[in-house]
Write a structure and sequence with these properties.
Chain lengths: 554, 198
Amino acid sequence: MDTVTILLSSFVLSITGLFVFIWSLRKRLFDSNADAAKIIFSEGEIGQVEEPSANPSQLKNLQKAADTDPRLPLDDDQKLRLAKELAERIQADKSTAFVTFVFLSCAVVWLVVASLAGLTSSIKLHEPDWLTTQGWLTFGRLRTIHLNAVAYGWAPMAALGTAIWMLPRLLKTELMGSRFAMLGVMIWNAGLIAGLGCIAAGINDGMEWLEIPWQVDILLIIGGSLVALPLVFTLQNRRVEHLYVSVWYMGAALFWFPVLFLIGNLPGVHIGVEQATMNWWFGHNVLGLFYTPMALASVYYFLPKIIGRPVQSYNLSLLGFWTLAFFYGQVGGHHLIGGPIPGWLVTLSIVQSVMMIVPVISFSINQHLTMRGKFSTLIYSPTLRFIVLGGMMYTLSSIQGSLEALRTINTIAHFTHFTVAHAHLGLYGFFTMVMFGAIYFVMPRVMAWEWPYPKLIAAHFWLVVLGFSIYFIGLTIGGWLQGILMLDSSKPFMDSVLVTIPYLKSRSVGGAIMTIGHLVFAFHFIAMALRFGPRRTGAALLHNKRTSILVGAQ
Amino acid sequence: MENEIKLLTGAMVALSLATSTLIIVPFLQISKVKPPEGLKPYTSVQLRGRDQYISNGCIYCHSQQPRDMAQAPDAKRGWGRASVAGDYFYDTPHLLGTMRTGPDLFNIGVRQPSADWHLGHLYQPRAYTRGSIMPSYPYLFEMKDAAEPGDRVISLPSGYNPAGKIVVAKPEALDLVQYLQALDHTYPAIAAAKISKK
């Protein structure tokens, strides 16, 4: 097949597809009326902050910082409608509370497991004779346990827990068929435990991101499908006309993931180096078409909700969504630059990697414009701090990724710790930060209980920010030096190993601080679940005095 | 956006484009690739060793894909010529790897043909390479007071043998070494590339 034709046609198809979809979904492209952006607010709610994890004084300051747009007082009719909608929202929250709690609890457990496995692996890289007598503790297996506990434990549990909680709110209905999700989450976790056990015992499928034996994957597929059912039912029962941005991201991601996972794990189909291209089609798309959209869905919901201002540009969010859908899927080949795969494929992936700048920039501009004039809200809202920082890390990691796909930079960065640092910027700096923020928002609603020790939220934030900065900066420098020395054939290979040692040690320090942060978070989560701390349920369930009186009057 | 059918159709079109370019077209192209003449299928012992390579996660630090001289001096490090698709005819699952915390191993069988070296190096890498950060694999070996018939006793550089004991390789270690010794893709690239391009 002619290389140039394939390249061009795929690129042209992507671009055409993109425009057709934007056009068909939004015929009045430059319309400033953005009803769909306001769908997450009830009448009169715009301008009203919502932050369940803030204490009363933070909440007061937050409202003050957010009060930049003039608001009209509500008339009696509007007040009634608002009260009705709020009552419905409480019903929606009640329908998801238990399921969400189960998902998020699993997420926290896997976060701790993954952190400990990751930290141990990190130390082993500079202390290679530590804990070597047991097979399951060897670097190759423990590192893989770390990756899988994040990829199939923490990340999907947190993302799905948040999605299950958000969807009924966005669709203004109750969660339908939550029993399926409960069964699904049990089967999924059983599968994951079995999968990690296999990896520890040395049984794995031999491909990065797809290590869990395919026989065990069947459990994950059954579990995942059961979790998806209530989300589909809820979507069918929606009572809103507009689907909010977050629904597009979650809806698409929830259909993308099963396809990825199924094709990736099909046994006996993939051959030779095609298996390698499939491997990185999966490896990159699980990030780009599952974790990324799930986290973006959270940002698009929580950020406007907290500061009480609708997303600035509905059109930009449309553009961001469809460019992500059409460009992200094809970037995986950049993991194999210089490898024994067809040249056109590598070129295509590089081109699409660079095109990823479009969705990223549209998201970043949108986030910035929405936050404009309200950045001081970051001081008072713990949730927002995590979410806005996460959003910024999305911009950084994606732009870094686009640059890293360029041949000249890839030649140095490929095969080094630089890539490891980059992967963590995306999955930790972006995804995990956003999920932390989402959990801080969601849990008080789920438990009808406030976070018992607000200072621990601040401690968690600063620990993970400090730890991750050390982790990322150190490993990026170390990886770059490693790559440069590896390309200098006049230097022995060992030089490229020795140069990384101080940076690998700094990574362990950073990782340890992050792990402490996670333990603080896990402790706080447990304390909340066990209902420690002062009883302050009222403020957690309802918005503030004004609305609680309204609802109380109903 | 009001229509979930449009949303999901669009989403699936996007994904199928990606699937075609990254999986289906490469599959069609690569299914025509024949094994080069110089490449031998793995023996059953070597395949068992390959399973050990997978099981212990060697791929997370070692690649098996030397790059072209035009891009990187991999060949000058003795890692071999740039690999081509045909070289991987018998490789399922693929073990291309993404990290070079340690060197590329596509031709390690040529670079280090000695089984003694490999066994000793697996037992204690730092006995051979100062400053190496490769894990030691004592669980692939047994400590004994005296060798029994059929035991493969490994010879370590002085100072690394545990006092008063001998170190015997377990079958896992022996299989793994057989696989590593078999990693030899030094046959001519041109013939291999020609076959791949057909």
